[in-house]
Write a structure and sequence with these properties.
7-stranded mixed sheet, alpha/beta, 6 helices, 15 strands, 276 residues, 6-stranded antiparallel β-barrel
Length: 276
C-alpha cells in the first residue's frame, strides 16, 4: 500500500495510479529525458512494461520506461523518453522540475526472460529502443550474452549510444545517414547481426517495419523472437479496447487482442503483420 506521503509499504500487485513528480529533465539529441517519482511503479516494473502519463487537456500518453532506479535522493524513480510530436508530448516535454503529473503503471505484458543463459540479440530504433536497456541489464544478471543494436535515421534520434556500451557485451550503432556508427538501416543488416551474435532469442523494439524484419530474421535463423509493439493506447489499461493487435493464437486461430494488455510484448511469429 502507499501512504499519504507516497511511501510504499508491502508488495505492489498490478498497476497503480499516482501523482508523480518530475525530479530531473534533460534534452539529449531529439528527445527529452524525464526522471519521475511515481510511488509503487518502479517497485513493480519489469522490462517491457510501460506507463501512461496524463497530459493536461489531453488523453494519457503511453511511454516506454528507459531506466528504473531502486534508490535515489528522491526514492525509487523511473526514466522515460519523450519525443515531442504533438500537443500532448510537447506539453509533457516542457514540464519543469517539480511539476506534478499523474502516472499509471506499470502497464502491459513484459518481455519473457529465458530460463537458461543463452545468446540474446536486442534490436531497437529511435526512442522506442528505451525498453531494451533495462532488459539488457536483467539478461546480463541471468548470465546471458547480450548483443545490442541501436539505430536511428540520424544521430539526433539515436538513443543512448554511449550507455549501450555499458549494457551489453557488443554494441552495433546504425544511422541511415551515416552520421554516427555504420551507415544503413536495421533491416539491411539484420540477417548478418543475427548470425554474428549466434542469437537464440531476438528482442526488438521500434517501428513496425523493424519489428517485422527482426521476427523474420529470427525465424530464418531458427531463433525465437519477442517484439514490443507500439500502438496508440487510449486508456492503457485494456478497458476501452482501442488498441487492436492482430495475432495468431496458440491454437492457430486468427484473433485480435489488446496491445496494452495482452501486449505490448508478443512473440514476433504470432503477429499478423499484414493486418496490423
Amino acid at each position: 500500500m502507499i501512504d499519504a506521503r507516497g511511501a510504499v509499504h508491502g508488495p505492489v500487485h498490478g498497476p497503480v495510479h499516482v501523482v508523480g513528480e518530475v525530479v530531473a529533465t534533460k534534452r539529449i539529441g531529439g528527445y527529452r529525458h524525464l526522471t519521475l517519482t511515481a510511488p509503487g511503479v518502479p517497485e513493480a516494473f519489469r522490462p517491457g512494461n510501460f506507463v501512461a502519463v496524463s497530459v493536461a487537456g489531453h488523453v494519457a500518453r503511453p511511454l516506454w520506461v528507459h531506466r528504473v532506479r531502486a534508490s535515489s535522493a528522491f526514492g525509487p524513480t523511473l526514466d522515460v523518453v519523450v519525443e515531442a510530436r504533438g500537443e500532448g508530448t510537447t506539453w509533457l516535454a516542457a514540464q519543469p522540475v517539480g511539476a506534478k503529473v499523474p502516472v499509471t503503471g506499470p502497464l502491459g505484458r513484459a518481455f519473457a526472460l529465458p530460463k537458461e543463459a543463452v545468446s540474446c540479440l536486442l534490436v531497437g530504433e529511435g526512442y522506442a529502443a528505451a525498453p531494451l536497456f533495462p532488459l539488457a541489464e536483467r539478461l546480463r544478471e541471468r548470465g546471458c550474452a547480450v548483443s545490442l543494436v541501436v539505430s536511428a535515421p540520424d544521430e539526433s534520434r539515436l538513443l543512448s549510444a554511449l550507455e549501450a556500451r555499458r549494457s551489453a557485451r557488443s554494441v552495433t550503432v546504425l544511422t541511415a545517414d551515416g552520421s554516427v556508427g555504420q551507415r544503413g538501416t536495421v533491416t539491411e543488416h539484420l540477417d548478418d547481426l543475427v548470425r554474428r551474435s549466434e542469437a537464440d532469442v531476438v528482442y526488438a523494439a521500434g517501428p513496425h517495419g523493424v519489428l517485422r524484419a527482426a521476427a523474420a530474421a529470427a525465424e530464418r535463423a531458427g531463433a525465437w523472437s519477442q517484439v514490443a509493439v507500439e500502438t496508440d493506447t487510449p486508456c492503457g489499461t485494456g478497458l476501452c479496447h482501442g488498441c487492436p493487435l492482430p495475432v495468431v493464437g496458440e491454437d492457430g486461430v486468427d484473433r485480435v487482442v489488446r496491445a496494452c494488455a495482452e501486449g505490448p510484448v508478443v512473440r514476433g511469429d504470432r503477429v499478423r503483420w499484414d493486418a496490423l
